[in-house]
Amino acid sequence: MSASDLKIAVVGAGVVGATTAWELKKRYKNARIEIVADRFYEDTTSYVAAGIFRPGGSFCGPSDEITEKWMKDSYEYWDNLRKSKEGIKAGVIELSGYIFSSSFPQNVRNRFMEKVCPVYRAATKEELDLCPGDWKYGSYFTTLLTQTSFFIPWTINKFEQDGGLLKHQKIDSLEKLALDYDVVVNCSGLGAKFLCNDHHMVPIRGQVIKVKAPWIKTFFYGDVDTYILPGLDSVTLGGCRQYESWDLNFNKYDAMKIMDQCEAMVPSLRGAEVLGHKVGLRPHRSVVRVEKEIKSFDGKRVKIVHNYGHGGYGVTAAPGTSLRACNLVQEVLSGNSKL
Ligand SMILES: Cc1cc2nc3c(=O)[nH]c(=O)nc-3n(C[C@H](O)[C@H](O)[C@H](O)COP(=O)(O)OP(=O)(O)OC[C@H]3O[C@@H](n4cnc5c(N)ncnc54)[C@H](O)[C@@H]3O)c2cc1C
Question: Any keyword Cytoplasm (predicted)?
Answer without folding.
Answer: no
